[in-house]
Amino acid sequence: MSTSEPIGLPEPPEIGASALPEGTFDGVTVFVTGGGTGLGRAIATEFGRLGADLVVASRKPEHLEQATEALGDLGGGLLTTQCDIREPDQIAAAFDAAVERFGLPGVLVNNAAANFPVPAEDMSPNAWRTVVDITLNGTFFCAREFARRHLAAGTPGSIVNVGASYAWTGGPGFAHSAAAKAGVKNMVETLAVEWGPYGIQVNGLVPGLFPHEDMTADIKGNLARTSDKDVCQPALRVGRLRELGWAATFLASPYARFISGHTLVVDGANWQRRTLTNPPVVTVRDQMGKGPFELG
Q: Which of 25, 166, 195, 246 is catalytic?
């Protein structure tokens, strides 16, 4: 007897489990931008559980304090360093500190980004520049610093750029971030070809909906206006933070060496969801609870 009742995707294994062997990243230093909070910390956690020495970079001291509290007791060592990834000199200084403490990082996770929902017509030039500068330029500056050091040393390495699915689809309400993330996705494909001959793999990792306590107030407000997040997902549930960390550790592991130039989407097929009939269009302003646009 069969049933057509939806059941959703199963829950993942418990926190602390891993598909990779214990100690996979023993002796490897993993540099994570924005690794003190949210998704970056979830990714750093799984690398740490597998033995990596962690370098967490953030421009906010309070985020570095959170990293120390959350990551300090994992298997490997931990270094936190203040760094604004918009500034190449600060990135170089952060890598110098990492090299002095642990040696040259073998993995770079470009997680730091800026984002907030805003209708395009309300977006200030400064808002556009800031998001693009952090999300796109900062990702490139970090990748460039990492690659230059490995090319000079003649050593292999792995880069994981955290992206977003609206790099493919467009992102109404997030024009600045969507444009920047499209650039990040293209960077994965471009740099994988350029640096592959030197042993550097470059991949992308796109998270779906992974609710966490460090989301901005604006994004939390948008989620609050969604009646029930689980039934809005084909998986009938949202992501669990450890699932994103597991995907990142696999992409950077010895078991994924021949994967490069690929962007892995971890979202339970949500971005590919389509309906047989189109629902009524609701403007971005209405979705955000904003009134009519007024010039000036």
A: 166
